[in-house]
Amino acid sequence: MKEKISIYNSLSRKKETLKPIVKDYIGMYVCGPTVYGDPHLGHARPAITFDVVYRYLKWCGYKVRYVRNITDAGHLENDAEEGEDKITKKARLEQLEPMEVAHLYTLSYHRAMKLLNCQSPSIEPRATGHIIEQIEMIKKIMKNDFAYEKNGSVYLDVNKYNQHYPYGILSGRNLEDTLTGTRELDRQSEKNSPVDFAIWKKASKEHIMKWASPWGEGFPGWHMECSAMSEKYLGKTFDIHGGGMDLVFPHHEAEIAQSNACNKCMPVNYWMHNNMITIDGKKMGKSLGNFINLEEFFTGDHKKLNKAYSPMTIRFFILQAHYRSTLDFGNDALQAAEKGCAKLMEAITTLNQLHPVAESSFNVAEIKQECIDAINDDFNTPILLANLFEGVKIINSIKDGKATINNTDLEKLKKIYQDFAIDILGLNVMEENNDDLTDDVMGIILLLRKNAKENKDFNTADLIRDELDKKGIQIKDTREGSSWGIKK
Ligand code: ZN
User: Fold this and answer.
1) For 359-386, how does the pLDDT look when each residue is reduced to its tens digit (9 = 90+)?
2) CA 156 to ligand 1 center in whole angstroms
3) Protein residues placing their CB within 5 Å of the ion ligand 1
4) How many Å lie between the centroid of ligand 1 and the Cα of residue 32?
5) Superfamily name and number for 6-274
6) What's the predicted TM-score (pTM) here?
7) d(CA 264, ligand 1 centre) in Å
8) How many A from CA of 221 to the centre of ligand 1?
9) For domain 278-427, is the CATH number 1.10.730?
């Protein structure tokens, strides 16, 4: 069953019906994090937005190859063309190897994504693992005469490109606008024109992360990695490319130009961009003091937070807004999301305890259709949630004896909540609570075993250990006490 999905395409600036290039298969690329710091809200929004897209496409029966990169080289400070590499700078400040920095923050990104219940992409390629592919692509662009070398750096010739392909097609900026924006900054530049951008940069002596190339030692321009890796894993043209709206220019515009200049075809059919997150109406920024990373949300350990917020509250909050709307984080709004999420999860628990009768007093098929219509309309998660909350009213009125449901409809209603709330929106508060509950129950078992040992009832103590072992749970006894873990 393939649903008719409508996507707002940033390229055409209108909603279009999704038509995959290959039947039953979708290739999707999303720009991932530059791993030089702890993940924050700005990472959570695209991850959750495209996690829902990924989950829904799979639910519809598509085979999806979801590629999300890790930027571990080439991304310079302030997204600029000159300056220090973000990862190298962090490495210098913390006296670490650049790869240590990248590894550390890749782990912390993965940890946060798991807590937010974002499924792992199919492939997570790294920029440093694809230097050869990037060099090959640059060579092709030069062969096609869309780039030139200057003092060991290679630049894309934007004016020349613009004679063959429309530069600015995604961002809506024309060459004139771009020129006005860059003229002042680039007076001293070695580039032929201020609008040209680096696809390979000569490395200075101090630059640590550099590689040999036909143009001498250097490193790829930040935009190159996504063009090279998306082509390698998804082909010259693929279905969906996602990312935050802040990436439209210059990053995604540059990707389009690089791919056209190399392969003479547009790389992407549907461009999707999630909007930005503000905190108390202001842009997030380290210098503004309102920069809250995800770990701080989960622990509540930040002066702007009144309390801790669970990963599911954050997820629910992000899904309450359409991905193309701005989203403002504040304590009141988060607490409202926390309540809303709990109400939905309680209703799912209630649903599983309802008793069917002979007649239903409402139409289950209608609820399902409304949910499908919402998600098919450019992944409208707030409307989908509103429809699920309409269903919550019905569930509660059945519980209160004001409405009835028959057995077939009850099973259908359970499936709607399993599919839309848990599988597609990825809300799994019950699992979260279950983890806490398991911890509590295991605490009680370990206490009983401790008491048995103290009373020299070693048979009971061993019985508890052996029976748990059969279930794959391992007890470790140390001088400090006992702990438990799942056997590997
Ligand atoms: Zn990218």
Assistant:
1) 999 899 999 999 999 999 999 999 999 9
2) 17
3) 31, 226
4) 7
5) HUPs (3.40.50.620)
6) 0.87
7) 20
8) 11
9) yes
